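User: Fold this, then the next.

Assistant: Folding the first:
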Amino acid sequence: MNEEAEPAFPGARLAYDLAGCLRFYSRLPVPALPGEGDPHAVPDFRTLPRMLPLAGFLLGLPGAGVLLAAWGLGLGPFLAAALAVTAGVLVTGALHEDGLADVADGFGGGTTPARRLEIMRDSRIGAYGGVALMLSLALRIGALATLLDRVELLAAPALLLAAALSRSAALAPLALLPPARADGAGAAVGRPSRRTLATAGGLTLLVALVALVLGLPVPGLVLMLGLGLGASLAVTALARRMIGGQSGDVVGAAQQAAEIAALIGLLAAVPA
């Protein structure tokens, strides 16, 4: 784990955590850093998520770049938004979408916590999961396309902020709930410390400040932050009631809900 690695350069601990976030949350080939130790070890979520907002920002860059390129080529708002969301899914390997589908199937099809957890472990996608995936993609593409239509190039920093914010907000289940199963990913990675959560929150506000400088309106930023966190807390409360805790799938569902809510929140503050 990163806390045990011997730092080889100034800021090494933060760099190790950033690299760990990028490896865990994406398919990017991130090489081992000097002095990092085993880059494939189980991540230590007591400290690693402090760099998650920055990692989310970086993971949003391919989608933002595709969005700007497609818009510049005159492909229109819908196709540009669809291509941008596709780029994001490819970068992450549909990690969060997979969690959302599993949660939808488990919560929708199970009648007891044990049965819900059993369904969530099934690799097959059922009707609830399929509908959840379709709605998630449609809502994100629709929100981005509408933003392009209203604010044009400012949709790119909005996408970057949503990518950073949603991943920070998705820490809520890990911070507030116990693992739903003793042998799951939620139990293996550990619980973020208060200092880790504070650092992640501070970096999220820093990304929001960058978006503000780039031209996003203050009311929109406030709604993005508030609704994004609120959506994640709603998923957290639902997970507590349905399975009595959190899992990796719940975190993925929280991220999807937070990203959708953040983009819609910004739309609500931008005149049609």
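Now the next one, as you asked:
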Amino acid sequence: MNNPALDVTELRAALDGVVSGIEVVEATGSTNADLTAASAAGAPDRTVLVAELQNTGRGRLGRQWTSPPRVGLTFSVLLRPTEVPPHRLGWLPLLAGLSLLRTVRQLTSVDAALKWPNDLLVGPRGAKCAGLLAEVAGPGAVVLGIGLNVRTRAEELPEGVNATSLLAEGADLRRTDLLVALLRRLLADEAAWRAAAGDPEAVGLREDYRAACATIGSPVRIEQPGGTSTVATAVDVDTDGRLVIRDATGATRPVAAGDVVHLRAIP
């Protein structure tokens, strides 16, 4: 299958006034690492870097994120939400996941939902189609990295994991169009959240996220740093964006970090 390169001229024209600048490179190690370095050098708010191939990209919990060239969208956005108090910045990756979900629902008819905190699950199997990694990039600066499988064929998907792509689920999209729609949605949602000083209730972010998150109400296993795991039922997302779980005793507690596995039933 012939997959054309992203049209950077079209991207710049369509996103004029939306982003402060956008660059597309053929290959790099990590767009997040590159933008973090650019942030330290003074890159402006809403700078975007896209790579046709990322060869040392990282996902959450240090996992590697790889994709064949010119089939997915691998990009990072530098944000400087200085109006948002530090204790509310934890909502930014959840907001970005919701923006991604909204864009996919707008442009396709595939079943799509979020797994806490921001994995995009699509198709009847609820397979992972995208992931997001947010990293601090200096005082008042955050880099959001998104990896989305767009036109990856079934045989190109990684083995041994429940992964898919929009194309594999029947959605045939042009990557340039998708990236424009996604950045417009993400930056509009982030601007509204920023104007509300990051208050997730004031902009309806918490309510909308809860409605979109397939994890809430599901039996889950939480695999946490250090090798411990907990089986429980996910019942909510609190005001700080943490997943609230209920254990077998009926006690509830928030979880701030960990890898969530959806279970069919609690053993």
